[in-house]
Structure formats: C-alpha cells, structure tokens
Amino acid sequence: MGEHGQLPGPGGAAGRTVSGTQLSEDAVRVFRWVSDQGSCDARTLGATLGLTEDCAASAVATLTGLLLLRHLPEDSDRLVPVAPDAAIAALVAPKEAGLRRQLAEIDQLRGELALLTPFYAESRRRWQGRPPLTEVTDLKTVVGMITEATMRCRQEVRTCHPGGGRSPTLLEQAFIQDRDMLRRGVRMRTLYQHTARYHLPTQEYARRMTDEGAEIRTMSELFGRMVAFDGETVFIPHQDDLDAAIVIHEPSTVAYLCATFDHTWSLAEPYHPAWTESSARDEVKQAIVRLLAEGMKDEMVARRLGMSLRTCRKHIAEIMEQLGAASRFQAGYLARVQSSAPAPGSA
C-alpha cells in the first residue's frame, strides 16, 4: 500500500497510527532503541543514533504524542518507553466509546423508523388497490393531489392546456413547482394553443421554463386539458364542475391519453413568442374557416381556439374580406371550395 498505508514492519517501514499521525522511520528507530535501553537522555538521543537535532526532536514529539514515550516526573530530560498495548488502550478506548454511542443511536433510529414500515406498507397496498377512476369534487383536494403528484413525479410530466394564457398568479405558482421538478431531472412537456403566444405572462413563464429545460409547443386546437405524471396518473377536468377533476389510474386509459398527447406533440410547433411570420398564424385562420364551415357561432369558435371573442371576430372579418364573403357561413363555404378546387394545370 506504500508508505502512507502500512504499519511499521520489521524493516521499520512507515505507517499510520489510529490518530492519523505518521510514524516515520526515525520514530520507529528511536522507539526500538529506547525500548532496548530502558531509558535515555533526550538531549543526547540524536547524537547517539546519528540523527540531526530536528529529526530527533520530531521523532520524540511523535512518540510522546502517541503515548509511546514519556518523560520521567523527577527528570524531564529522561525518556522511558510505554507498552504499545497501553498506548493503544489510552488512545483507542475513547474512540471506541464514541463509536459505541453512535451505533446505539443508529440502532435506536433504525428501530423507531422501522415502527412506521407497517403503516406505509398498508397504505401502499391500498394505493395499489385504488379504483381506476376517482371523482374529486373539492377544489382544495384537487390542488393538494396535484401538488402531491408533482412532488412524487420522477420521470416525466405531460401537460395540455387548451385556451389562452393563464393568470400571472397561477403561472408563478406553477413555475415554482415545475422548476423543482426540472431540477430533479424530470422531463416536462407542455402543449398550449397558438393563441397563448399573444399572452405576455405566458410568454414570460415560457421563457423562464425553457431556460430551466422545459419543452413547450403549440397547436391551433388541442384535444383537452390534462396533466399526466410518470405515465401512471392523469388528471382531467370534470365535465360538469369547473372546480372538480377526474383522477385516472387505470393503465390502459392512462397509456391511451399519454399516446394522444405524444401524437399531438409530434404535430405541434415549438413555442416562440413572436409569431407574426409564423405558420401558426395561418393555422389559426385555417381553423377559424373550418369551424365556420361547420356552422359554429363566433363564441364557440373563440372558445375552441382559446382566444377572446373580440380577437376571433377580428380574424373572421379579415377572412371574410379576403374571400369576398357576405356571411360567416359563406366564408366557410368559399374557403372549403377553394381548398378542394384542383390546382391550375392539374389533370
């Protein structure tokens, strides 16, 4: 092991004591010589062994520190050897006592924590046997369950947020939890609608989150609101109660929803705040035309595309002007006819 890892051998190789003090070859020579003589004069020790004054003093200091040499009370210049077993007992006993105390504390802590194991195991069995779908009607309970799932998440969270931008307060609360997940190594993918690119608080949230490693994309329309944790638990909104949620654990349903998210993600565009020249703007207008052709009213179109009614009507007016349409339904019809007409020169 080399000179820093061996105890002294017959040849006087250096080693290390329990205190970490280096036993030099000179110290070993001094101890052997004093042991042979029974005692020695510290003032003549160096000259007797052919050591410099500094080397002799260093060796004596090491040996007295390790309780292997001691000065006689009646003659402080006289050194006598001490049995290594006695020195070991004096040096090691306090450390062993400390270790015994630490081991006792560890055993006590282990025993106290082990008392909780049956409670956790029982809860785990109940958790694994939970119903595939749970209706939670209390908003605080919903928030608490999502917070707990966020803290427990270890691999990936998928989030789909239809509609426009969210309130700055909700975005700030989400940022703190989402940042903590990202710093634990959790992958985070979020889908917004294209119209969220207009929203300044969402722009700032997206910038901060992408700086932390999150991935954000947008589409003109989304399939619905959901949050999926680790491909095991999905939260979706309640159909009849805005403050309620449905929590899904059933594996096939969770896998289906996550696959739906992944498919939508593959079609979505990476988030960029400035989108005047982006194809996302054209996609929004195409979606408006398609929904008008289906006979939807302005309010429904705005809700489906996550924009305000005023913005929606502004887009509709531009589309009608471009198509020369007298009504919204006619605009949808004309756009559909134009899109189905064969290109010039085609067979």
UniProtKB/TrEMBL annotation:
InterPro entries: TrmB-like, Tscrpt_reg_LuxR_C
Span of domain HTH luxR-type: 286-335
Protein's name in the database: LuxR C-terminal-related transcriptional regulator
